TrEMBL record:
Catalytic activity: L-homoserine + ATP = O-phospho-L-homoserine + ADP + H(+)
HAMAP family referenced in this protein's UniProt entry, alphabetically: Homoser_kinase
Cellular component aspect of the GO annotation: cytoplasm
Taxonomic placement: Bacteria, Bacillati, Bacillota, Bacillota incertae sedis, Caldicellulosiruptorales
GO biological process per UniProt: threonine biosynthetic process
Pfam families: GHMP_kinases_C, GHMP_kinases_N
Function description: Catalyzes the ATP-dependent phosphorylation of L-homoserine to L-homoserine phosphate.
The protein's name: Homoserine kinase
Enzyme Commission no: 2.7.1.39
Pathway: Amino-acid biosynthesis; L-threonine biosynthesis; L-threonine from L-aspartate: step 4/5
Positions bound to ATP: P85, L86, T87, R88, G89, L90, G91, S92, S93, A94, A95
Source superkingdom: Bacteria
Keyword set, alphabetical order: Amino-acid biosynthesis, ATP-binding, Cytoplasm, Kinase, Nucleotide-binding, Threonine biosynthesis, Transferase
């Protein structure tokens, strides 16, 4: 049996719609083994939206690898141990896709290179901003081209923390993409290019004072925040308590605030504020570090199946 550990991810990071994302230290574990025949899928905790048949996202990702390399297991057992909350903008689907591809490649003899796995994952997800950090870790700048992903991985220092606000309601990425406008104004494109470029420079040079300005966005947040009650309240309280920027995580509904050395005071202030605020939903709060490793083998046990 092969166990793979794959991180959550937060995409966009303010201005970098579909091209910037970071892996976070919150994980799913995918256990896979070849069996005599059939497909057995188990999951804990279980969730009705996790398919137990060929529609399961991890299985679908594994199948793209088997089709690519022309090797198929006789049967397959998949066990999912999920820590990443579903449909909250923390890359649960990208974790399934990148983790499934990584596990299938190991099971089928490691024929695909890292670059090939990154490309397959981004193609399946439709954008490379979650799948690439889920695969290789770090904070990634990535563009999906015809046959490859062009990307740069930045190893995030432990000093930078990601304060994550997770509400008790879901928002599917598909829905949150469909409500975006087909066209945007030239000035809004210019606004985002400037901020995304500034973000890339500021984060990689440690100029965190620039991050509140560099994480402003006009491409997706103005539209999506209407679907997230109290979005502005949470962003504003984070900035008041000294966050270096606060924005929607992926397509939402989770919100991320960037915090550096003073994260313990920040955490205390936020917890007190959340306990005393009138909010439409319940919001979970946790402080995470970036994961700089991506999908990794957790354990390998030899299987009794003989070919
Ligand atoms: N652990 C899992 N196992 C199987 N499918 C999953 C798992 N986690 C997420 N998914 C699938 O991904 C969907 C959520 O994807 P998406 O809407 O993109 O949200 P997210 O922001 O969490 O990636 C779920 O409805 C489910 O179909
Ligand atoms: N760039 C995508 C990112 C979606 O991330 P997810 O974690 O919500 O799946 C978008 O903004 O649609």
């Amino acid at each position: 049996m092969i166990s793979v550990k794959v991180p959550a991810s937060s995409a966009n990071l303010g201005a970098g719609f579909d091209c910037m994302g970071v892996a976070l230290k919150l994980y799913n574990i995918i256990e896979v083994e070849e069996i005599e025949k059939g497909l057995i899928i188990t999951s804990s905790p279980d969730d009705p939206s996790i398919a137990k048949d060929e529609n399961n996202l991890v299985f679908k990702a594994m199948k793209t690898v088997f089709d690519e390399v022309g090797w198929y297991p006789r049967g397959l057992r998949i066990n999912l141990i999920n820590e990443i909350p579903l449909t909250r903008g923390l890359g649960s689907s990208a974790a399934c896709i990148s983790g499934g591809i990584y596990a299938a490649n190991l099971l089928s003899g490691g024929k695909l290179s890292e670059e090939e796995m990154i490309y397959l994952a981004a193609k399946m997800e439709g954008h490379p901003d979650n799948s690439t950090p889920a695969m290789i870790g770090g904070l990634v700048f990535a563009v999906l081209e015809d046959k490859k992903v062009n990307y740069i991985k930045f190893v995030v220092p432990a000093r930078l923390k990601f304060a994550v606000f997770i509400p008790d309601f879901q928002l599917s990425t598909e829905y949150a993409r469909n409500i975006l406008p087909k066209y945007i104004e030239f000035k809004d494109a210019v606004f985002n290019i400037g901020r995304a470029t500034l973000f890339a420079s500021a984060i990689t040079t440690g100029n965190y004072e620039l991050l509140p300005a560099a994480t402003q966005d006009r491409l997706h947040q103005p539209y999506r925040k209407k679907l997230i009650p109290d979005f502005d309240k949470i962003v504003n309280l984070s900035l008041e308590f000294g966050a270096k920027g606060a924005f929607l995580s992926g397509a939402g509904p989770s919100i991320i605030a960037l915090v550096d050395e003073n994260y313990e005071i920040f955490e205390q202030n936020v917890k007190n504020a959340l306990a005393n605020m009138e909010l439409a939903a319940n919001w979970d709060f946790m402080i995470l570090e970036a994961d700089n490793s991506g999908a990794t083998v957790f354990s390998v046990q030899s299987t009794s199946l003989k070919r």
